[in-house]
Amino acid sequence: MGGMAEDSILEIFNRHVKRNGVFKNRDALSPHYIPSNLPYREEQVKELSETVAPILSGRKPENVFIYGKTGTGKTVVTRYVLKRLGEFAKEREIPVNTVYINCRIHNTRSSVFIKIGRELLPDDNFLGLSTAYIYERILGKVREADIRLMVVLDEIDKLKGISETVYALNRANDELEKGSISIIGISNVLTLKDSLDPRTKSTLCQREMIFPPYNAEGLRKILEDRAKEGFREGAVSDGAIALAAAYAARQSGDARYALQLLLRAGDIAEEEGASAVTEEHVEKAKERVEEDIILEMIEALPEQEQILLLAMAKLVLAKKGQKTLGSGEVVITSGEAYEAYSKLARELGKDPVSDRWFREYISELAMYGILNVVQAGKGFRGNTRIIKLLFSPVKIADVLQRVLVA
Ligand SMILES: Nc1ncnc2c1ncn2[C@@H]1O[C@H](COP(=O)(O)OP(=O)(O)O)[C@@H](O)[C@H]1O
Ligand SMILES: [Mg+2]
Fold first, then answer.
1. Where are the alpha helices (DSSP H) in 272-392?
2. What percent of the chain has pLDDT over 90?
3. Yes or no: is domain 10-29+214-293 CATH 3.40.50.1220?
4. So what's the pLDDT on residue 162?
5. Of 154, 251, 343, 366, which one's alpha carbon is 20 to 30 angstroms from that of 125?
6. Measured from the CA of 33, which atom of ligand 1 is nearest?
7. CATH entry 3.40.50.2000 includes domain 303-405
8. What is the rounded average pLDDT of the residues 282-301?
9. For the chain, how long is the longest CA-to-CA vector?
10. 3-state DSSP call for residue 23?
């Protein structure tokens, strides 16, 4: 018993027991998780519940338009209320159906209808069918089973053809003798309402809810509650929570940023084998979260901009290998970038865009802060511009390789 080998095994195992220390349920800090309570959103939960409740006695709820800045809890409050509604209705065998649609992913009227069709008729195949036909199938099902349907169109500003979609879904109610369809539209774009045509506006905004940003105190309470679900007891210091809340308050009260900070701080604490998350871990997590945000943004760019960015990242990496510049800072010219982009686009089976669009894309990427572009000085041709990537080309190449090539 207890020889040399035995001791080192114990040491390894012990180290891992300690390491598993901070998280109890890491998932509870992820953006998809629906927590059991939503501090500082009690009023919104109540108001939305009041709005949807008529569905339980067979009346069609009013359509709702919810707006507010990113990370103010719009998505989670909606999902929370609809989840509770679904559970309540199921227990009492009331035919309520809810379909949650993120319009960033389903961004056309036909893909919205396919998504609804799939949820209501999971055994049917909708591919290749006309939108009008899918619409009739949905209506047929709603009528036949007397379904009261709630459709959530989250990030509705990303939907091409908002008017047509809202109109079609709402018009269904005139054609239905039984069942109903109601819409909850959600957006981070505060000016969206003003850009809708009057008819769409009055249909969608039968009721309106505004979600204000959280302050540091609200964020602290949110983090505290989520930490209780996600971390082992005593594994997060109060200071760490207060600091994450303070940083997020500065990021216009974004709860998502706050949670991401805490999650990453937990990861770092585990990597370091620490038994609790401290302010120092939050401090270190900031950089990683900022990186996460940029990478997510890159993942959501239009495909042509992604191809351009990948081409530039590869070019910078190739140049780095050659170390042409003494300073070690690698820049590329707009000509080189366009050439690399066109070549890559063709390799990926896409038609490269014209120089005019190329310039447009470059200024868009500059606006997002991914790159920097300046007019080249003497020694360069005419309107050559110098481009510098402001974010790790290795990381850009990593994500985009996965997104575009895989
Ligand atoms: N009041 C709250 N209590 C607990 N978690 C919250 C609360 N508000 C927001 N969150 C969390 O913060 C993140 C961002 O919220 P989300 O609903 O996605 O914001 P929005 O849709 O307004 O951009 C999510 O992970 C969500 O679960
Ligand atoms: Mg949202």
1. 279-299, 303-322, 334-347, 355-367
2. 80
3. no
4. 96
5. 154
6. 27
7. no
8. 91
9. 82
10. strand
